[in-house]
Amino acid sequence: MGITEHSLLRLALFTDRHTIFTPVGKWTMIERQQQIRLQLSMSLKAVLSQQLLPKVGGGRVLACEVMKTDGAIRNLIREGKTPQIANAIQTTGSIGNVLMDKTLQGLFGAGTISRETYEGALRDQAQAKNGPGGMPRLR
May I ask the CATH class of domain 45-132? Predict the structure, then answer.
């Protein structure tokens, strides 16, 4: 038996590696992924991602990302449009959603974490080049 990982869900779909390359095997795998996305979109309430980062002056500080599901996020999961979820999180701050990079900007802006820690923890490395808030960084 081979294991195929669905990138968003990190769920294992067990498929027979001898039939995976036949049209029926591929179709069955696609149907299973669609079923899992549908079930996840209906049952998922929230996802919390967190990092413990070194604090300036010692100790550690928590940086987290929060994704509470709403109709738009559920639809993106159902349709397999996972790259668009970050945009949906960014536009739904009113329900408590926060991107990790936004949390990191706040910690760096407050002087809680160093620039090196900030740049190393960013998911969007374009921000590391520009600095917090998208403004070009002065050296």
Answer: alpha beta
